[in-house]
Design goal:
The protein is of the alpha+beta class and 61 residues long. Helix content is 26%, strand content 33%.
Length: 61
């Protein structure tokens, strides 16, 4: 399960996956946005997009 951030801007829903904040998508409905987020996830994790940047945590003493 992937967390995502989304908001509505006028008639469109915009969002991105929490782990991949540089890769935004949009949809006319929240359902379309979710479908587009799944597509982006598959592209990001399947190697279709080179040099993918992602968020990670680093524990510092």
């Amino acid at each position: 399960m992937e967390k995502y951030i989304y908001w509505q801007d006028g008639p469109m829903f915009l969002g991105y996956l929490e782990e991949y904040p540089d890769y935004w998508t949009q949809g006319e409905t929240i359902e379309e946005l979710k479908e587009n987020l799944i597509d982006i996830y598959n592209e990001l994790t399947g190697g279709a997009i080179p040099c993918v940047r992602r968020v990670a945590e680093l524990q510092v003493s």
